[in-house]
């Protein structure tokens, strides 16, 4: 502790924040908006251009591509995402580098001081982290700030900032305890990031009508996938074919979009980012609206270099993906089937190390992955929301799956797999951010120099 009684290390700050509020998630903007005003976050924009991204799945990849595209166009950038995988610092990137402990602590101190004066306001761990990130971004005034909504949209702490462009990636059932099971209501909540008269990018062909209805009620210009913009060259669905360019080379795809006046624009021979092309196309549309025009070569460079740990991330024959609901699992199954088709001469099994939280749809995830998984290794996740390996095993067996083994932790499961997996086998690690984070931490410990973890390929 320092002289003011405040923590002096990032770990001690995070421990303090975890214990400070009676509940982990407390949706609502009244408390956050009060402290944001005290911090001066409502007085002027936090960046020259702000893009906010909401959705059930695809937010992280869309944010990563927007950030990469902005950097390739010579913009100074800031990106705020959640949750993190290994280090809290991952949540805030400034010019593509993780924020240092010192920068994060400076933000926490600023929020704490504003929270207490003139009268105390209670904030959750996520709310403090969000306000600290927004305060840090606002002090730097970057050319582009990209903000990922944590949960929902309308009542999420990120929504204290008015975006220049709002993106809704997908809408599916998840976080039912907070958002319910009504898709129309969930869609309306996610559309709550939109602002009157400002563009709304709708990044899925399957969004509930409530999303577009809300945009129209605000007079927000709608740019919808399949209407105002589209992509061709690699289909993003389960029957995806290898991505090829106009002359047959791997990696080329095309984008057709619209400018702010609704006039058609386009980009050709784009690099395959190894991420959902619906999200890539949405990122291109959003940034075109924010900047006015995009440079084709810069777009190719950005999409070729973008990396997102934990999303179709391969290291040798191990693949990590944080998919934790049926919608994400369906996409993952499609990409694995695509890879198997391309590598049809490679023998071996696909083994799935899966760990999930109790409040997630395990049956739906298992059903989606079953066509591409030969055998399963369920593991227990600890904590109040953790699901046991035995529970997962019973659900897998009920659907006719083969259980190789089950383990009391992700590390125990990985130990078992490493001792018996065949050279031609593939290992899929999925089901939760916690499951993937444990493997990434394991790889980091095993790295001789403690170096950078490999990105997605």
TrEMBL record:
Residue ranges of domain Mur ligase central in the record: 53-194
Sequence ranges assigned to domain Mur ligase C-terminal in this UniProt record: 310-433
Gene3D superfamilies named among the record's database cross-references: Mur ligase, C-terminal domain, Mur-like, catalytic domain
EC number of this enzyme: 6.3.2.12, 6.3.2.17
SUPFAM superfamilies found in the cross-reference section: MurD-like peptide ligases, catalytic domain, MurD-like peptide ligases, peptide-binding domain
Signal peptide positions on this chain: none
Superkingdom classification of source: Bacteria
Metabolic or biological pathway, per its Swiss-Prot or TrEMBL entry: Cofactor biosynthesis; tetrahydrofolylpolyglutamate biosynthesis; Cofactor biosynthesis; tetrahydrofolate biosynthesis; 7,8-dihydrofolate from 2-amino-4-hydroxy-6-hydroxymethyl-7,8-dihydropteridine diphosphate and 4-aminobenzoate: step 2/2
Keyword Cell inner membrane on entry: no
Segments traversing the membrane: none
Chain intervals for the UniProt region annotation (Disordered): 235-264
Keywords tagged on the record: ATP-binding, Folate biosynthesis, Ligase, Magnesium, Metal-binding, Nucleotide-binding
Catalytic activity: (6S)-5,6,7,8-tetrahydrofolyl-(gamma-L-Glu)(n) + L-glutamate + ATP = (6S)-5,6,7,8-tetrahydrofolyl-(gamma-L-Glu)(n+1) + ADP + phosphate + H(+); 7,8-dihydropteroate + L-glutamate + ATP = 7,8-dihydrofolate + ADP + phosphate + H(+); 10-formyltetrahydrofolyl-(gamma-L-Glu)(n) + L-glutamate + ATP = 10-formyltetrahydrofolyl-(gamma-L-Glu)(n+1) + ADP + phosphate + H(+); (6R)-5,10-methylenetetrahydrofolyl-(gamma-L-Glu)(n) + L-glutamate + ATP = (6R)-5,10-methylenetetrahydrofolyl-(gamma-L-Glu)(n+1) + ADP + phosphate + H(+)
Keyword ATP-binding: yes
Function: Functions in two distinct reactions of the de novo folate biosynthetic pathway. Catalyzes the addition of a glutamate residue to dihydropteroate (7,8-dihydropteroate or H2Pte) to form dihydrofolate (7,8-dihydrofolate monoglutamate or H2Pte-Glu). Also catalyzes successive additions of L-glutamate to tetrahydrofolate or 10-formyltetrahydrofolate or 5,10-methylenetetrahydrofolate, leading to folylpolyglutamate derivatives.
Annotated family: Belongs to the folylpolyglutamate synthase family.
Record protein name field: Dihydrofolate synthase/folylpolyglutamate synthase
Organism expressing this protein natively: Halomonas litopenaei
């Amino acid at each position: 502790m320092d002289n003011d009684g405040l923590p002096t290390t990032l770990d001690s700050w995070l421990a303090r924040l975890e214990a400070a509020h009676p509940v982990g998630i407390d949706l609502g903007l009244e408390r956050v908006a009060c402290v944001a005003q005290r911090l001066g976050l409502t007085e002027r924009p936090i960046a020259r251009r702000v893009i906010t991204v909401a959705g059930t799945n695809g937010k992280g990849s869309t944010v990563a591509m927007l950030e990469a595209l902005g950097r390739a166009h010579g913009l100074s950038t800031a990106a705020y995402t959640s949750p993190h995988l290994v280090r809290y610092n991952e949540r805030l990137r400034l010019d593509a580098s993780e924020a240092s402990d010192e920068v994060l602590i400076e933000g926490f101190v600023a929020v704490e001081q504003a929270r207490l004066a003139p009268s105390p306001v209670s904030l959750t761990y996520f709310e403090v982290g969000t306000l600290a990130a927004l305060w840090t971004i606002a002090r730097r005034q970057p050319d582009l700030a990209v903000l990922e909504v944590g949960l929902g949209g309308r009542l999420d702490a990120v929504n204290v900032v008015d975006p220049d462009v709002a993106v809704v990636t997908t809408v599916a059932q998840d976080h039912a305890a907070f958002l319910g099971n009504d898709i129309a209501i969930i869609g309306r909540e996610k559309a709550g990031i939109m602002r009157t008269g400002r563009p709304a990018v709708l990044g899925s062909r399957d969004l509930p009508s409530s999303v577009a209805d809300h945009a129209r009620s605000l007079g927000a210009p709608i740019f919808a996938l399949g209407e105002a913009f589209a992509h061709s060259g690699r289909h993003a669905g389960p029957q995806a074919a290898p991505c090829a360019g106009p002359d047959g080379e791997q990696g080329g795809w095309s984008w057709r979009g619209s400018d702010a006046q609704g006039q058609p624009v386009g980009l050709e021979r784009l690099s395959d980012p190894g991420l959902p092309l619906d999200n890539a196309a949405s990122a291109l549309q959003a940034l075109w609206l924010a900047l006015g025009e995009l440079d084709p070569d810069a777009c190719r460079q950005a999409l070729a270099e973008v990396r997102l740990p934990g999303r179709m991330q391969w290291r040798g024959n191990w693949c990590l993906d944080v998919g934790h609901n049926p919608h994400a699992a369906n996409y993952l199954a499609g990409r694995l089937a695509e890879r198997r088709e391309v590598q049809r001469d490679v023998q071996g099994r696909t083994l799935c190390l899966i760990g999930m939280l109790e409040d997630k749809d395990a049956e739906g995830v298992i059903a989606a992955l079953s066509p591409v998984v030969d055998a399963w290794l369920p593991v227990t996740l600890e904590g109040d929301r953790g699901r046991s390996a035995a529970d997962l095993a019973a659900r897998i067996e009920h659907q006719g799956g083969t259980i190789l083994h089950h383990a009391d932790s992700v590390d125990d499961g990985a130990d078992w797999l490493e001792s018996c997996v065949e050279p031609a086998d593939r290992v899929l690690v999925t089901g939760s951010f916690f499951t993937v984070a444990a493997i990434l931490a394991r790889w980091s410990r095993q790295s001789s120099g403690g170096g950078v973890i490999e990105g997605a390929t």
